[in-house]
Design a protein that fits this description.
Chain B: GO terms for molecular function: oxidoreductase activity. The complex is a heterodimer of chains A (124) and B (412). By secondary structure, chain A is α+β, with helices and mostly antiparallel strands. Chain A is 17% helix and 37% strand. Chain A has two helices and ten strands; from the N terminus they run E-E-E-H-E-E-E-E-H-E-E-E. In chain A, a hairpin with an 8-residue loop joins strand 1 and strand 2. Chain B starts with a strand and ends with a strand. Classes of the chains: A alpha+beta (124), B alpha/beta (412). Chains A and B meet through strand 5, strand 6 and helix 2 of A and helix 2, helix 4 and helix 6 of B.
């Protein structure tokens, strides 16, 4: 049986309100309407089958000109892992200097996503 | 001693950086960017979340990454950016006085570009009754403390205002281990982008209480709790709907104000609705040779358009120095029914112009109409219009030929 659901796209600030038609027998997305781009359609399909989110946070830095370095995941993580991932990042302390896009954690929680620095922090 | 420059840019945030790069690419050498903070990048430095640059770069960058692209390019072009310096005064003849730990310096510029950004409305601006304990922060200050200084602001938090920074901070504080009890919004709709409601509130099951406001703050040393009540259509709290939230922190995300104190000294005319300078299609203010761009001109929701505006101001400033771009922009543009404001406020005819505007209320399937007297110049229909989302519409020179008086409004 088919069913439709409205999903607000979070890929970009356009925030398309997409209409997603789902086949309940196999939990497959049959059709995505009102999406302005392909990325939006892919997001809608993922959102039904395995919702994912990018993670951005900060990690402590010792002896840096700043006490924190901002970080992000290099690809989205499963949504249900986001809180646990943030807790993991709070436990880490890095030694300055940190270079731009340095890998801080690889394969975080076995998700396949790496955590990378989004700024550089020089040594104090 | 008077130091001579071609173009002085006040502020090294996204607007100022884009302006400096564009001016340099157009062949100007005497460019000086003055920045109050210790490093360039502006507010982007503390906006560690992603979603920046989707329009310009077709990828979702974080704030620091977006800023870095411009800072790197400015460095590569050899643009002079001075940090830790505060502009105290700009005069009508484009004399710029700046103060830094090295002392006071006075510059004389041929053109000035204002790119100072905006600041936040505070508790005082919205008059919340109650005691005055610690633990009341604006969202941007909380963001600065948490993301740059490693200072956590509280454990049990209520957020007033559903602007984008408030929503982003609801998620951020949750990920840092705080309990965000609710986001409270006085209006019947959120003033933030829908995607932020989804990924910052819904994902973490944080309730969004629309048509509610904070009516009282309690606590002496520190916030102990806040009272929240439902409001009617006029925004007045309704008797009998109060409830108390025990919390140690209240965060305010209740609007942004262009930071125009030095612009006023220069005698620049400010628009009462936008809080920014009144400008023509060159983004030139009422003082010839002084241009404005970014959040000091109008508060934006997307940085991509801030950069675009910076470039537009720089292009016009370069033309101004060459002695061109002097066409009188004496056609007024008026915001009519359903439109809160429209920029530029005055134009000249015969050139392509991008208009930016915000609607007064959320609505669906409405048409924005540009009219000159009884003549319709352009119509554009939108599936949904939202005050949180700036609308930009391009008109071609041909569509603006012979225009005398322009009004922009929503049909019906």
């Amino acid at each position: 049986m088919d069913d439709s659901r409205e999903i607000v796209c979070i890929v970009c600030p356009n925030g398309c309100r997409m209409n997603v038609v789902i086949n309940h027998d196999n939990n497959k997305v049959e059709m995505v309407e009102n999406a302005l781009c392909e990325k939006g359609k892919a997001y809608a399909r993922d959102e039904i089958q395995c919702p994912k989110r990018s993670l951005t946070s900060t990690v402590k830095v010792i002896d840096g000109v700043l006490p924190l370095v901002s970080v992000r995941s290099d690809k989205p993580l499963p949504k249900e892992k986001i809180r646990e991932a943030a807790v993991e990042l709070r436990k880490i302390e890095l030694q300055a200097p940190i270079i731009y896009h340095q890998v801080i954690v690889s394969n975080l929680l076995g998700t396949g996503a790496n955590i990378i620095a989004t700024k550089e922090v020089s040594k104090r | 001693m008077l130091i001579k420059k071609d173009i002085i840019i006040v502020g090294a945030g996204p607007a100022g950086l884009a302006a400096a790069i564009e001016a340099k690419k157009r062949g100007r050498d005497g460019i000086l960017v003055l920045e109050r903070e210790l490093s360039a990048g502006g507010i982007l430095n503390q906006c560690i979340h992603d979603g920046f640059g989707l329009i310009r770069f077709n990828e979702a960058l974080t704030g620091p990454e977006y800023a870095r692209r411009y800072i790197d390019e400015a460095k590569a072009l050899g643009i002079e950016i001075v940090t830790n310096v505060m502009v105290q005064d700009i005069s009508r003849d484009k004399t710029v006085t700046a103060v830094s730990p090295d002392g006071i310096k006075t510059y004389k510029a041929e053109a000035v570009i204002l790119a100072m950004g905006c600041r936040e409305r505070t508790r005082g601006a919205i008059c919340i009754p109650g005691t005055r304990p610690s633990g009341v922060f604006t969202a941007g200050v909380a963001q600065n403390l948490v993301n740059l200084k490693n200072i956590m602001v509280g454990k049990r938090i209520v957020i007033l205002g559903s602007g984008d920074i408030g929503l982003i901070m609801a998620r951020r504080l949750t990920l840092e281990g705080a309990k965000v009890l609710a986001v409270v919004e006085k209006l019947p709709y959120s003033s933030g982008l829908q995607r932020n409601i989804t990924q910052c509130l819904d994902d973490f099951e944080i309730p969004l209480l629309l048509s509610h406001t904070v009516t009282k703050i309690e606590g002496h040393e520190r916030v102990k709790g806040v009272t929240i009540a439902r409001v009617d259509e006029k925004g007045n709290s309704i008797r009998g709907t109060s409830r108390k939230f025990e919390c140690d922190t209240l965060i305010l995300s209740v609007g942004l104000i262009p930071e125009n104190e030095v612009s006023l000294n220069a005698g620049i005319v400010i628009d009462e609705t936008t809080g920014g300078a009144r400008v023509d299609e060159n983004l030139q203010t009422s003082v010839p040779g002084i241009f404005a761009c970014g959040n000091v001109l109008q508060v934006h929701d997307l940085v991509d358009y801030v950069s675009a505006e910076g470039e537009q101001a720089a292009k016009a400033a370069v033309e101004f120095i060459k002695g061109r771009g002097e066409a009188a922009s004496d056609i007024t543009v008026r915001a009519g029914s359903g439109i809160r404001y429209v920029l530029p406020q005055s134009i000249s005819s015969g050139r392509d112009i991008t208009f930016s505007m915000r609607v007064t209320n959320p609505c669906k399937n409405k048409t924005i109409i540009f009219k000159d007297g009884d003549t319709v110049l352009k119509k554009r229909t939108f599936k949904a219009l939202n005050p949180a989302e700036m609308v930009r519409i391009d008109l071609k020179a041909g569509e603006l030929r012979g225009v005398l008086n322009m009004e922009v409004f929503i049909d019906g």
